[in-house]
Amino acid sequence: MIATPLRFSPSSVKRSDDGCPRYRARKARPGQTRVNSAPSKRTSRETYGLGPLEKVLDLVEFDDLDVHTALRRWSGGRGRDAHPALVRWTEHAARQYLGASAELADGLFLRPVSRRWARRLDQPLDGLVAPHEEIVYGRRYAGDGVRELRLLRFRGVNDRRRDDAEVALAAAVLSAGGPVLSDPWRPGPLVIKQYEPPRRVRIVEVGCLDGSSNVLFDGAPEEAMTAYERHARTRVHEVAVGEALRPGTDCVRCPMVADCPAVPSVPGLLGIRDDTRPRRTWSVSTARRYGKCPPIPYFHDLNLPLDTGREENESTARGRVVHYEIETRHRRVPPRACAADDAMPGSSGSAKKVGEDGLEMRLRQQMVGDHSLVCPMRNAGGDADAEFLPEHQVVVHDPAADVVVIAKIDLLYRIGGVWRFRETKTCRRLYEGDLLKKYRQVALAVLLSAEGALPGGPGGCRVELERLTATGPVLTEFDVNDPELVREAREIAQSSLAGWHSDDTLATSPGRACQTCGFARWCPDAATGAGT
Question: Cα–Cα distance between 441 and 431 in angstroms, integer?
C-alpha cells in the first residue's frame, strides 16, 4: 500500500493560540489518522454552518439553476432535515455571496471549477523524509489565464485578519497545482492532473453576512512563490513536527483523545452511557444556552452569525468588564496582588456597549477594588513555587458518554503546594440560597475535583466562590471531600446535561427569551418582533 503523504491546507497552517499542535500534526497525516480512528459515528444533523451554502452554490454554478430554484431543490432534498434557522441563514448567505460574486468578476470571464486544486512537493520538507501535498478548499474559478479562490467568512471580511501563511499557501497551490481527480478524504496520495499554469492568481474572501469582499492576493505565480517561502514554508514545517499537547475544542475531533495524557478520562462522570452519537463538547455554558432554548447550543456549534448586542444587558456587561479587569491584573509580570487603588482604564474599551450611568460605573469600579480584599495573590507571601493561571481551561473526557467536558476557570492557582479553583461572580445583591444550584460552574468544579480531574488528585483541589456585590466581597469555600456535597454536585451536573444530550429534535421554545436571543434573526419561530 502506498503511504499517504503529509497534507496541508490554508486552515491547517494558520496560527492558533488555542489549537493543539499534536492534533494538527496528526491531522496533516490523513492516512495515520484514519488507521488509528475509532469507527465513525455519523449524524444526520448538519455540523458545518457553511456546508449547505456550498451545496446551494454548486447547484447555481454547475447545474445552472437560479438561486431560488437551487435553494428549493436543496431544502427539498439533502437539506430536508436541516434546522429551519440553518435554512434561513443559508438563503441569506447564498444571496449575499452571489451579489458579491457579480462584483468580483472585474471584467474577467471566470468559470466555476468543480475540482479542488492541489500540488505535491516530492522534496523533503526541512528534514522530513515524507513528501507532502497542499490542497485548497473554497470556491474556485478560472479563465483568461487567471485562477481565483474565494474563501467564505460567516460574518464580514473585517472580522479577523487572515494569517499571511494561509494566504501564501493558497496562492502557491493556485500557481503550481492542478485539479484533484481522486477523493481527497480517502487515504493514499492524491491524483493530481497536470494543468497549464496561470499567469495570474487571486485569493479573495467574501463575507456571507453582509456580502463584503476583500482581495488578499493578486499577482503573478512568481510573486505567490516568494510569499510562500516568506510566510508559509516554516509554518508548514512547524505544523508537521508539532508535539505539544493543548487540550481544548480540538479534542472533540481528535481520534486519540481517549489515550491523551493531557486529558483526564473519567468514565461515568456524566451518568450517561451512549455509544451511538458522535462525540460532542459540553460546558456549563452549553447547559445555560440549552435551558434558554434547546437549539441555541447547536447554533453556536454551527457558528451562525450572532448578534451579541441582543444578549447583553447591564448585569452581563458588568460581569464581563469586572472579569476582564481582574484577569488583566492577574496576568501581570511579575505577578503581584491586586490593590484597591489599581487604575481601571475606561472599562476596557468595550464596556460602553450598554448605556451605563455614573452609578453603574462606580459599582464596577467598586467591585474591582473589593476584589483586592480577597485576591489570592495576597496569600502567596514568599512562596517561590506559587502558580497562578487566569482563565485556565480544563478538559475532561467521559468515554461512556463520549462527551468532552470543557471548564474554563476564572483562576486556578497553587499556594503552599495546594491547588485551588476560584470562580468569581458579580451581583448587586447577595444570593442566600443553594449556591451549587445557582452557580453550576461551582457544582461542576466540586465534581471534577472529587473525581481527580483537577490538579492535586481526587479531592486535592479546593473550590472557592468569590462574589463581588454592592455591599462588599464574599468568599466561600466548598469541602470537596464532603460526600453529601459531592453527591449534590454530581446530581446538578448530570441533570444539567441529560436533556441536551438526549435531545434529537432541538425544538424551539418561543417566548420572552427570544427578545435577548442573538440568533433570533435566523429563527423562523422567534416571537414576533424578536428579530428586529
Answer: 16
